[in-house]
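Sat 14:20. Reprocessing the chain from the morning session after the first attempt stalled halfway. Input below, unchanged.
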Amino acid sequence: AISIKNLDNWFRKGVKEDSWHLTYYSFNKEEEKLRETLCTVGNGYFGARGCFEAENASETHYPGTYIAGVYNKTPTLVRGRKIFNNDLVNCPNWLPIEFRIGNKGYISPLNMEVLNYKQDLDMHNGIMERFITCRDSAGRITTIHTRRIASMFNPHYAAIQYEIIPLNYIEKIYIKSSINGNVENTGVDRYNNLNSSHLKLVSKGKTDDILHLAVDTSHSKTRIAMNSKTIVYENNSLKYAKRTLLEDRAKLGEEIEIIAKEGRIYTIEKLVSIYTSLDKNVSNPEEAAREDISKVNSFRDILEPHIKTWHSLWRNANITISGDRFIQKTARLHTYHLLATASIHNKNIDAGMPARGLHGEAYRGHIFWDELFIFPFYNQYFPEITRSLLMYRYRRLKAAKKYAGDNGYKGAMYPWQTADDGSEETQIIHYNPVSGKWGPDSSRRQRHVSIAIFYNIWEYCSTSNDLDFLHDYGIIMLLEIARFWASIAEYDEATGKYHIKGVMGPDEYHEKAPGSKEDGLTDNAYTNIMVAWLLDKTLHIIDGLPQKVKKKVIKTINLKPSETDKWKAITYKINVIIDKNEIISQFNGYLELKELNWEKYRKKYGNIKRLDRLLKAEKDTPDRYKVAKQADTLMLFYLLAPEEIVSILKNLGQDIKDAHKLLKENYDYYVKRTSHGSTLSMIVHSNILKYLKDSETAWEWFTRCARSDIYDTQGGTTIEGIHAGVMAGTLNIIMQNFAGISHSREKLEINPRLPKHWNRLSFRILYKENWYNIEITRSRIKVRVESEGTLAVYSKGKRYTVAGSKPKTIQY
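Finished this time. Tokens:
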């Protein structure tokens, strides 16, 4: 039996290596929603926030379960016009387990006197765990210990183990276990005046020992079926308990009655199955959920294969860092959340990579360009996941072509924000929480998302060697994206240049030229240079295709020689403005804008990351100033090496001699004019400093990124979902900057730049179908390959051969 005297030892049982655990040792109402995001359990199919089982949505808590690809579009009347929002749906809540003592009502233990508390996310095993010891108003002390998983082995399973220990009383206790379909999307305060109701009850009931609930989304008509089975033990022995069925509209549960004895452990195991009508090869989600739940009879049945699967994932993706406890923990936390959002199960899921994960409702769960920062992670460890996410884009190629056509262009123009069917989901009006007013939203003009998709396809194919994907799917997307950019580029006889008008760059603050009535900018440098790059790549890829594939593709899309001639011409004649100091003008007219009095706004507002909202609240606009939310021109150096950018500029007639100087001048110029309102900006700034060898500033940017979600440094945004791009971006910096991994020249290079206090960095990466095990210390690189043949790696320009049977040591 457990007593108050020996509770502490039991309470702290199973404490393992700190770097695998995110642990909180006290309950804090102000931080609870942040912790719920960071303690989300997920498996790529669904994610469930780390809310305590007994809690409902409130100012302190927000339970949320999100299933990949489940969206619902509903209308709301705003300022006299009907607008539509397509939301990642908050699905039925499978978590609820409540308990009460005697005739006392159901009160959450967190609303009692909390004597002891620990919450722990075990990243290695994919388990979220809680210990609570609480005392009610009658002086009765109870300990509750819970464990929760979203099965990584079978993504349709979820499970909770909920232990109750009465420490100083013998009394009848009641446990209520439910599935709650009476939920709405209310996780983002600024959306709460919009339609947030998405679920309609279809059926509910109990068959034998199984509860079953089915709901439909109101407009997309996706069926969601959940089944649950609750098993009760007393000190590990099955226990019979009286049960009463409870119903409340779309909520179904059962109340379990137990005569509890002091010091005994009463365990409630709640096993859950989840299916939807979107599931591949599932014709009836209700039947599939019932069949799955009948196959498991204990928490352990789901737990053990789940742990084994997580361990197999970590074998590939674990990064080991010696000398930095915080970054070690954060690297694993970021890896964990990426795999909770998109996993090995994505090959059976038709869904993209939500920018905020399966962790909350920010950005309505939409897919943006953040994949550009995320896919390098998957390319190195799980290229099959990248392939699945790219197939999501391929299946929406038709929608992207329609979107281009609707706007008067050819080819494929992918939307800035998208959800389920590939349509543009970006709002046409935007709510400004500073002014409390709605204003026009032009951000759908960020056509550069199509550049990101092109880059992602190219990078995936070049690192994975997946020629089947390139020939069957990728090449069509590449060609149609190239066709779009060629159609939006207009030739001007007067300038002898091609110009791209009506777009926005990554900056996001600048929506139009000052005083202009037309939305969008002309000749955004990032856009134009990347268009020159992608058109040149496309021409080379076409030339390298097998003749049979080439003929088929040309016939399929009716590609004409006149089109490819224009593509080549654009690579030599697209307009890029550079001044005498080699500052690349962010867009046509940028260098003539006013300078902002940054200090004035810092003194007035403190946090000026969202300078656009502040200026608009003052009836001004960032369009008038040299300001940026995030890296725009500097994004070029994130994607391309400085020498490659210089080569493109030379083709365009720009006389640039020193690639290092070009980057240094532009970095110094733009960093002072950027508010970093997006954490992606800090990722870019940190990573490009590898070329300037400014390790101290790179480290400063990197640590700000590493802290951003775990400490919610963006001021309340992480409570609405993780920032998947930043999480992946920090891992990219570790690999690309600190480990010095590069494959830009179609070969694997390792040129380490370890932070001063790091003693050792080790990891595995997959490159062109071969696994490389790499260990870096202060003076040497050790490489071992998992291959029978001999492979080559490069360091500081020198080639080294590595045989499968022998590790290779390289001094640097």
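The chain has a mean pLDDT of 95.
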